[in-house]
């Protein structure tokens, strides 16, 4: 049997713990208990190959930023989760979670997971306490576009409550390890561009300071003066 370590990351309260608990134990609870670390095991069949998934739950809160990466070594696949009905968690995939994953595990495959699908489908924004009232739910096409941008292996939407799409999440995670894509995430480096020409202000001998442009990991852009 193939052993696969699967680590789940994402903002707090996007449903990571419910996702794992429901899949591993077939039970669902709406009570949210913030997680530091938790582990589950489950077996999934992929093309008649049994795979034992070691499922690692992590805390998404800012206070655990230094502790969370302790679970990353030897990870075979990441699930980067966001809530379909919380756009800030969607935005944080690109701003926080992918840079963090790629810093520690630059070549490990990622499955992008949109959670709480049932709320978008059935209840709508106006009827749920779990969503941002000022924003629209994330669409499937937006999720696919983000998956392509971050070079995720797959984008999957699911609901732990109804279990719709739940099995597919972990099947895709196992497939990403058993049948790795030939296209690996690009290992982006830090690029430092310095314009060294000094320009003097008219009527003064004081030159303008040289400007510098920095591109870090392909995701960030900063321009400043030396």
Automatic annotation (TrEMBL):
<dbReference type="InterPro" id="IPR005225">
    <property type="entry name" value="Small_GTP-bd"/>
</dbReference>
<dbReference type="InterPro" id="IPR027417">
    <property type="entry name" value="P-loop_NTPase"/>
</dbReference>
<keyword id="KW-0547">Nucleotide-binding</keyword>
<protein>
    <submittedName>
        <fullName>RAC2</fullName>
    </submittedName>
</protein>
<dbReference type="InterPro" id="IPR001806">
    <property type="entry name" value="Small_GTPase"/>
</dbReference>
<dbReference type="GO" id="GO:0003924">
    <property type="term" value="F:GTPase activity"/>
</dbReference>
<dbReference type="GO" id="GO:0007264">
    <property type="term" value="P:small GTPase-mediated signal transduction"/>
</dbReference>
<keyword id="KW-0342">GTP-binding</keyword>
<dbReference type="GO" id="GO:0005525">
    <property type="term" value="F:GTP binding"/>
</dbReference>
<dbReference type="InterPro" id="IPR003578">
    <property type="entry name" value="Small_GTPase_Rho"/>
</dbReference>
<dbReference type="Pfam" id="PF00071">
    <property type="entry name" value="Ras"/>
</dbReference>
